[in-house]
Amino acid sequence: TPLEGLKKLMPKAKITYYEGSDMEEAKTLAAASDAVVIVAGYDFSDEGEYVSETSGDTAITIGGDRVETLGLNKEDTDIIKAVGPVNKNTAVVLFGGNMIMLEGWKDHVSSILMAYYPGMEGGTAIAEILFGDVNPSGKLPYVTPEKESDLPQVNWDTESQFYDYYHGYRKLD
Questions:
Q1: How many Cα atoms are found within 13 Å in the side-chain-facing hemisphere of 149?
Q2: Which residue among 34, 83, 118, 141 is buried most deeply as judged by most CB within 10 Å?
């Protein structure tokens, strides 16, 4: 996690972890801190390969496409919008397997880092990027739209779909 990476790079620093359950407490901690790192996003149970298993009478499903929004969960955006303005040194580190919309909260923080699923040394890599020791200069293999309405509509109930050559590109010039 980024927490372990920060501890590794700053062994003598006081690092406070707060899970964000009380917005006023989060804002108080942010105001008293030199910098804030908000970790937000998704994990394998939110997106990715759809898995369905049956256990007794109950069907258990995880993963699949994010259908409701390509943005963050409301809890994540609420804490970013509340804490970001309190400390000008607030960075958001995003975890997820694909694009996450930034609209609605990006102007509340000073920096955003898309970490994807960074693996077991991801915390160290993220901390090195946050400290400026490494330049996060990866090139994305896709276009990130400004708003969800820039994307073609998806019919989630269809049984077949035809995509022509320019599908998904025509609105992203």
A1: 1
A2: 83
Which pLDDT tens digit goes with each residue over 37-53?
999 998 777 776 666 67
Locate 127 and state its tokens.
């901390």
**The pair of three-digit structure tokens given for residue 143, joined into one six-digit string:** 């276009």
Per-residue pLDDT tens for 119-163? 888 999 999 999 899 988 777 767 777 888 777 777 778 788 777
HEC string for the chain: CHHHHHHHHCCCCCCCCCCCCCHHHHHHHHHCCCCEEEEEECCCCCCEEEEEEEECCEEEEEEECCCCCCCCCHHHHHHHHHHHHHCCCEEEEEECCCCCCCCCCHHHCCEEEEEECCCCCHHHHHHHHHCCCCCCCCCCCCCCCCCHHHCCCCCCCCCCCCCCCCCCCCCCC
